[in-house]
């Protein structure tokens, strides 16, 4: 299976010129993209220009969020149809930073269903705030998975990706999880998915990792952690570092 490498630019950079430069510098690397699927997720306001000007096929595009509603009366929201018109194939759903703004599992499940029903791929984020010795974080992840996927039936899982992002590892000043710890969690997530969808599907839904991924830890995270890809925040804004991550996974 090809490794999915999602570049989550979040609310960066400040202007379209810089956004175009990041993508232009990345393309200039002329990487041989064979074993990975890099997905660029810029802010909505840059998506059109970045994806619209791309003539190749190696890079795919995604959005960082979407509305689950079809009705146009939704001030400030972006619809799935709008994204489809922008060559967008992936949508990150339920990122920790959206959940921190109040998005709950019910909303995540509605968005996930809307994304999948429309034929786009949903990258559903789950992950605990912190860890305890009693293991209640495992129950938290299990519940988040069950509730966030409550509206996704077995026959709709082809376009489902799970991103495990422990909140304590995401963003400035944090460290990524160790490959060993990640391996335990990736097995746990598989077990929960097998419980929900049965062995055949549960073992095949891609599970990726996000949280302080950079060029130095990407190899360990993928190989020791046994995940199917990466969700990269800060490091994806630097085209040289992001290219190094892709190179590592293309080896
Ligand atoms: P980070 O962010 O790589 O900057 O920790 C990851 C994410 O939030 O998707």
Q: Work out the number of β strands.
A: 8
Individual helix count:
10
Q: If classified by CATH, what would the architecture be? A: Alpha-Beta Barrel
CATH domain class: Alpha Beta
Name given to the CATH homologous superfamily = Aldolase class I
Helix content: 25-40%
Radius of gyration: 17 Å
CATH topology: TIM Barrel
Sheet with the most strands?
8 strands, parallel, barrel
Description:
The protein contains ten helices and eight strands. It has a single domain (3-250), classed as Alpha-Beta Barrel (TIM Barrel), CATH 3.20.20.70. The chain has helices at residues 16-28, 44-52, 80-84, 96-99, 105-117, 136-148, 179-197, 199-202, 218-223, 239-250, and strands at 3-8, 36-41, 60-63, 90-93, 121-126, 160-164, 207-210, 229-232. By secondary structure, it is of the alpha/beta class. Bound molecules: 2-phosphoglycolic acid (PGA).
Helix and strand layout, with pairings?
Elements: E1 3-8, H1 16-28, E2 36-41, H2 44-52, E3 60-63, H3 80-84, E4 90-93, H4 96-99, H5 105-117, E5 121-126, H6 136-148, E6 160-164, H7 179-197, H8 199-202, E7 207-210, H9 218-223, E8 229-232, H10 239-250
Parallel strand pairs: 1-2, 1-8, 2-3, 3-4, 4-5, 5-6, 6-7, 7-8
Helix pairs in contact: 1-2, 1-10, 6-7
The protein binds 2-phosphoglycolic acid.
The site of 2-phosphoglycolic acid (PGA) has 13 residues, from strand 8.
């Amino acid at each position: 299976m090809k490794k999915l490498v999602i570049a989550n630019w979040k609310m960066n950079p400040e202007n379209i010129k810089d956004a175009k430069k990041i993508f232009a510098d990345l393309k200039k690397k002329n990487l041989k993209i064979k074993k990975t699927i890099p997905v660029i997720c810029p802010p909505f306001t840059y998506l059109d220009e970045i994806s619209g000007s791309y003539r190749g096929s190696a890079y795919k595009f995604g959005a960082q969020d979407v509305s689950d509603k079809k009705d146009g009366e939704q001030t400030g929201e972006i619809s799935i149809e709008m994204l489809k018109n922008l060559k967008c194939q992936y949508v990150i759903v339920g990122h920790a930073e959206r959940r921190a703004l109040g998005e709950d599992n019910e909303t995540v499940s509605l968005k996930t269903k809307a994304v999948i029903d429309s034929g786009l791929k949903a990258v559903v984020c789950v992950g605990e705030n912190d860890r305890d010795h009693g293991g209640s974080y495992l129950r938290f992840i299990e519940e988040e998975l069950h509730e966030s996927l409550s509206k996704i039936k077995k026959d709709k899982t082809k376009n489902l990706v799970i991103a495990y992002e422990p909140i304590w590892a995401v963003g400035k000043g944090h460290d990524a999880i160790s490959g060993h710890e990640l391996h335990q969690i990736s097995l746990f997530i598989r077990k929960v998915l097998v419980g929900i969808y049965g062995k055949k599907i549960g073992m095949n839904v891609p599970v990726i990792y996000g949280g302080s991924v950079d060029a130095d830890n990407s190899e360990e995270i993928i190989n020791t952690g046994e995940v199917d890809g990466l969700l990269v925040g800060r490091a994806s804004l630097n085209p040289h570092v992001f290219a190094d991550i892709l190179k590592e996974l293309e080896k």
